């Protein structure tokens, strides 16, 4: 299953060449990832996904320039790997006809009070598994 986020484009996202600046795409990915994590937080007193997280790695392939328009762009996000203390999410930024970007991010849950990474809880892993792509599941992308 994939999480879908409708990301609005802002006039200030454009660079001098008239398309979305490469650094702005990282903000689009962040917005989609935060929306994804907020929707996964189960509520009812659970603390899952309510702490912090840090980005350990971004990998981005820019496929095609994106120019300003009033319609939002779609950011699809899914999980490709779940380990004991991190997860990897993949993204596609696109619309109905065009793929603009493919990316992945390694995210580490982080305890800001203790100032150190923490392990994913069983509850968090269960939620993330719902978004684990089929190819990753067949390769055993869930660890510890």
TrEMBL record:
It holds the Pfam family 4HBT_2. GO terms for molecular function: hydrolase activity. Signal peptide: none annotated. The keyword Thylakoid does not apply. Its EC number is 3.1.2.-. It comes from the Bacteria. It is an enzyme of class 3 (hydrolase). CDD domains: 4HBT. Keywords: Hydrolase. The keyword Ribosomal protein does not apply. This is Acyl-CoA thioesterase. It comes from Streptomyces ramulosus.
